[in-house]
Amino acid sequence: MTNTAVVSYVQPPDSPLARWVPSRAKGLLIAIAVLAVLFALVNLLSATPLAYADLLYLSAGGLTLAVAALGATIVILTGGFDLSAGAVISLVNVLVAVYINDHPASQGTAVLIGLGVGALVGAFNGFFVAVLRLQSIVVTLSTMFILTGITLVVMDKPGGMVPESFTRFFTGSAIEGVLPSPVLVLGFVVLAWLAIKKTRFGTALYAVGSDHEAATYSGINVVMTKLGAYTLAGLAYGAAGVLVTAQTATGDPLVGVPLLLQTFTAVVLGGTVLGGGRGGCVGSVVGAYSLMLIVNILLVLNVPAYYGTIVEGLVLIAAALGTTGVSRAELAHWWRQTVKRRLADSARSRPVVRLVEPARQLPVGANWLKTHGTALRYVLPAYVCLLLIMLVTVLLGRPIDMGYLNTLILLGSFLVVLALGQGTVILTGGLDLSLPWTIGLCGILLGGLARGSNEAALWAVPLVLGIGVLIGLVNGLAIVLFKLPPIVATLAMNGLLQGIALLYSNGTPDGFAPPALKWLMNARIGPFTPVVFAVILFAFLGIVLLSRTVFGRQVYAVGNSQRVAHLSGVNVGRVTMSVYALSGLCSALVGVMLTGFGGQASLGMGDSYLLPSIAVVVIGGTLITGGRGKYVGMIGGVLLLTALQTLLAGTMIPPSIRDVIYGVVILCAVVMLRERSSH
Question: What residues pair up with 251 in beta bridges, in sequence order?
Answer without folding.
Answer: 159
